[in-house]
């Protein structure tokens, strides 16, 4: 049985969904769709992070009770996923009963194993990050304020608190990273985490008494759990924890990958495996930290007023175009710059002139010169075989790139095949063969159509709608669009199959078309 479990971070509901939220979810969607096409049973989770001081403050500001507030704003995140055509299998909210139960069970396990003790926290806390900081990590800001490395303002907190014995886990974490060299990707990020752990970790405060908007600590009515302990637990709640005999848990835990932004790597790559190991549970197999987007070269921030609205981007450029741009523009893991010019360039040169033009040229010649049916083919020449074998080679290449979340490189490979197909059309010139050698013209168009079938199948994870339109135009049945159908020839296009009238797949983007 091939199972695959992938998660997005759960999003803070205080924010309006922006391009950063869209990006993590899209990357997971591309990965999840790829694995499904490759025959895996996939569990793809997203959701919302609804407890803690930051959310409580936003609710107060909105003049609402936190439960009513989170009920309302959580929906914005579900809606965004729908608009992005994200194929998540579950959507978890940390205010759900199943989650409270899982958090409390994890707490009990940690307590029973002597990993948690009662003490008193006196130190700095940044509500924006929901994170504790040591004095040595902070800078002085205006008005005597203390500023965290993330730029968040800190406040002094003194309260009774339970602590998790994080300091005792440093060596075991380092050994775990050593034994699992790909636990943290990209590797550059891994080094940061290792040096953080080596620098000496303090025990972690895991309960708060200054607020009540959280999961209650079992038998301690004055304490709620620290929001990151609560939030991280969502990943096991959704597969059935604390019922470790649950089908979901047995099939899907440990998760294959937690996809996160680089800002929240420490929580996922240090705290989370430590909590799990301390509770006697298996840590996830991988945490992948992606980069951040800037807007036309500038850091994105609410105060600068340059937050990118994914709905506006999709309405302007199209959904599949946006998905393509975000996955292609920068190697996954690096920071990227969102610029309108780069977007338009990608749409016109890669999509309209690239795959769009290849499909259009091929399908319109078939419609005109082959009676609108998949052409007959004779024996394949070396040139035909060369192109077909590149198309057939795609899945194994993509598999290994996807194994390390190399989405942009995967697209580079797909575009290499599109480039090879373009050169093949130019060299074979089927329009000229029409006058001299009809049989050869048909073979050439067949080879191109079959190449397009491969391309349509492998483009599905990135651009599900456009790829479906391409496969529809090749009359590929809906149940023959998985990777198994392009490995080997058993499902190759059948000569004589009637094809629908060709339609453009990717129009050019013309500025100020209105
Ligand atoms: N609630 C926590 C996650 C808990 S997971 C157990 C959280 N939520 S968040 O809503 O603030 O952030 C969600 C994701 O959006 C993070 O992975 C973050 O990196 C990502 N992004 C926020 N702004 C971004 C960009 N400008 N660019 C790319 N991703 C960014 O953190």
Can you walk through the features of this model?
The two termini are 52 Å apart. The strands form 4 sheets. This protein has a 6-stranded parallel sheet, with helices on both faces. Strands 4, 5, 6, 7, 8 and 10 form a 6-stranded antiparallel sheet that branches. Helix 15 packs antiparallel against helix 16 (407-428). The protein is of the alpha/beta class and 514 residues long. Strand 16 and strand 17 (298-299) form a beta hairpin. The protein has helices at 19-37, 53-61, 66-83, 97-112, 170-179, 187-198, 227-232, 234-237, 247-252, 265-278, 310-317, 319-328, 340-369, 382-392, 394-402, 407-428, 430-436, 438-459, 464-473; strands at 3-12, 41-49, 90-93, 116-126, 131-133, 139-140, 146-147, 153-164, 184-185, 204-205, 207-208, 216-217, 220-225, 257-261, 287-290, 293-295, 298-299, 336-338. It has a domain at 340-513: Orthogonal Bundle (Isoleucyl-tRNA Synthetase, Domain 1), CATH 1.10.730. The protein contains 19 helices and 18 strands. The structure holds 5'-O-[(L-methionyl)-sulphamoyl]adenosine. 5'-O-[(L-methionyl)-sulphamoyl]adenosine (MSP) binds next to strand 1, helix 1, helix 7 and strand 14. Residues 9-12, 15, 20-21, 23-24, 49, 231-232, 260-261, 263-264, 292-293, 300 line the site of 5'-O-[(L-methionyl)-sulphamoyl]adenosine (MSP).
């Amino acid at each position: 049985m091939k199972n695959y479990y992938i998660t997005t971070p759960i999003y803070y509901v205080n924010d309006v969904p922006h391009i950063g939220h869209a990006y993590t979810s899209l990357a997971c969607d591309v990965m999840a769709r790829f694995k499904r096409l490759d025959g895996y049973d996939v569990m793809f989770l997203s959701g919302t992070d609804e407890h803690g001081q930051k959310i409580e403050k936003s609710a107060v500001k909105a003049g609402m009770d936190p439960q009513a507030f989170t009920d309302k704003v959580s929906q914005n995140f579900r809606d965004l996923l729908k608009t992005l055509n994200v194929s998540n299998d579950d959507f978890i909210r940390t205010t759900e009963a199943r989650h409270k139960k899982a958090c409390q069970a994890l707490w009990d396990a940690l307590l029973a194993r002597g990993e948690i003790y009662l003490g008193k926290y006196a130190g700095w806390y940044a509500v924006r990050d929901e994170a504790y900081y040591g004095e040595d990590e902070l800078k002085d800001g205006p008005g005597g304020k203390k500023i965290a490395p993330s730029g968040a303002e800190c406040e002094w907190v003194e309260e009774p608190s339970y602590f998790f014995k994080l300091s005792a886990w440093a060596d075991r974490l380092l050994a775990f990273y050593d034994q699992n060299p790909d636990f943290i990707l990209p590797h550059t990020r891994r080094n940061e985490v290792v040096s953080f752990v080596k620098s000496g970790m303090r025990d972690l405060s895991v309960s708060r008494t200054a607020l009540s908007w959280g999961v209650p600590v079992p038998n301690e009515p004055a304490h709620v759990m620290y929001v990151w302990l609560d939030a991280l637990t969502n990943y096991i709640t959704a597969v059935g924890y604390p019922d470790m005999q649950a089908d979901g848990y047995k099939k899907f835990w440990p998760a294959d990958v937690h996809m996160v932004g680089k800002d929240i790597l420490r929580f996922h790559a240090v705290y989370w495996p430590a909590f799990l190991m301390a509770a006697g549970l298996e840590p996830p197999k991988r945490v992948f930290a992606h980069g951040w987007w800037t807007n036309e070269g500038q850091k994105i921030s609410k105060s600068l007023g340059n937050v990118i609205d994914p709905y506006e981007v999709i309405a302007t450029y199209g959904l599949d175009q946006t998905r393509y741009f975000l996955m292609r523009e920068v190697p996954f893991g690096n920071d990227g710059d969102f610029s309108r010019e780069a977007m338009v360039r990608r749409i016109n040169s890669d999509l309209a002139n690239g795959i769009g033009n290849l499909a259009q040229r091929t399908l319109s010649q078939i419609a005109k010169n082959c009676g609108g049916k998949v052409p007959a083919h004779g024996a394949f020449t070396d040139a035909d075989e060369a192109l077909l074998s590149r198309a057939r080679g795609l899945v194994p290449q993509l598999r290994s790139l996807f194994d390390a979340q190399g989405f942009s490189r995967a697209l580079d490979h797909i575009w290499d095949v599109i480039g090879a197909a373009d050169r093949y059309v130019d060299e074979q010139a089927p329009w000229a063969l029409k006058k001299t050698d009809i049989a050869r013209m048909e073979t050439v168009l067949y080879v191109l159509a079959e190449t397009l079938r491969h391309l349509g199948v492998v483009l599905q994870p990135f651009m599900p709608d456009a790829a479906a339109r391409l496969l529809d135009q090749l009359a590929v049945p809906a149940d023959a669009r998985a990777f198994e159908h392009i490995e080997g020839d058993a499902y190759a296009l059948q000569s004589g199959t009637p094809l629908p009238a060709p339609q453009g797949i990717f129009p050019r983007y013309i500025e100020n078309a209105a």
